[in-house]
Design goal:
The chain contains eleven helices and 15 strands. The chain has 303 residues and is an alpha+beta fold. It has a five-stranded antiparallel sheet with strand order 1-2-3-4-5, with helices on one face. Helix 8 crosses helix 11. The longest helix has 15 residues. It is globular. The N and C termini lie far apart (41 Å).
Length: 303
């Protein structure tokens, strides 16, 4: 399967449409047909055809197809640019009611994820990580040792665990950026020491590694949500904190964009009603639109 075909299957068109501003029309939607609107100017109807999300516009007979057609019709981007955009997209911080978007077509498959993970090896001299400014010294340091792998296609692999068992694999490569089919997302995390008193929450493992290289915090550990934060992930964060009462600080290192704003708002709202009594702060890049890997790459390019 080539990258274009894989993106058509792996990326949720309803979630992507919601991410760029389309709203669900609950009254018109059914389990088989999702109606979404962008103000009063645009309306699309989305459904599944086999393993692929497809759509059409009732306003324009030529406006139909897959997520690739959806983006191309609205931005006039090239196929190459669309592939680059979708592989870099982490899923945004959007949710749709489960009656309209379920995992019926991609249910959790623990046996498949375990099999894929067993075929991985620890990342070594990794071309993709190197291209993102992440050094081998960083990802093989005691903080991240045993947390970064590679598959046979040389994608970087970031495993998520639940109750000691691997439950999801986030794959990152030059033309790959997705959760492996059968994944049930929890959290990716670094190693944790008994005296770590700060939890650093990132959107992506690459951001966590970048932030570590930029700031080299002591007595801190990292978790990454691999996109928008879900209620189940917030519960896992609560569990981590309950197991580690020495944690005094939570720092959100989310992107400086709308997605990062939403994640920050959701986590802040959660801890407003949570028993955590420590300090909760946000540290995003100064410039709007940047993430911490952008900052790392910019620093590396500076004379």
């Amino acid at each position: 399967m080539n990258d274009l075909s894989r993106l058509k299957e792996e990326i949720s068109l309803p979630h992507y449409a919601a991410f760029i501003g389309y709203a669900l029309d609950k009254k018109k939607s059914t389990r088989k047909s999702i109606v979404m609107r962008c103000g009063t100017s645009d309306k699309i109807i989305i459904s599944r055809r086999g393993n692929i999300w497809v759509y059409f516009s009732p306003y324009d007979d030529k406006d139909n197809g897959t997520i690739i057609d959806f983006i191309q019709h609205r931005t006039q981007q090239s196929i190459k640019d669309i592939i680059r955009e979708l592989t870099a997209w982490h899923g945004g911080n959007v949710e749709l009611p489960t009656q309209y978007y379920t995992n019926r077509d991609n249910p959790p498959d623990p046996a498949r994820i375990k099999r894929l993970f067993n075929a991985c090896s620890l990342a070594t001299d990794h071309d993709y990580l190197k291209s993102r400014g992440i050094t081998e010294k960083a990802f093989r340091s005691p903080l991240f040792a045993g947390r970064v792998f590679q598959d046979r296609y040389k994608n970087a692999v970031f495993p998520h665990f639940r109750s000691g068992h691997v439950c999801a694999l986030e794959l990152k490569g030059a033309y790959t950026g997705l959760l492996a089919r059968g994944s049930e997302k929890s959290l990716w995390r670094s190693n944790i020491k008994k005296d770590d008193h700060a939890m650093i929450i990132a959107e992506a493992p690459i951001d966590a590694l970048s932030y570590h290289m930029l700031h080299d915090l002591k007595s801190a550990f990292y978790v990454a949500t691999s996109g928008g934060v879900s209620p189940s992930q917030l519960r896992l964060i609560d569990e981590l904190l309950a197991e580690r009462p020495v944690v005094e600080t939570i720092r959100l290192i989310v992107d400086h964009d709308k997605g990062g704003d939403r994640i920050s708002e959701r986590i802040n709202a959660h801890f407003d009603t949570n028993s955590f009594k420590g300090q909760l702060t946000r540290h995003s890049p100064d410039k709007r639109g940047l993430d911490w890997n952008n900052v790392l790459m910019n620093e590396m390019r500076s004379p």
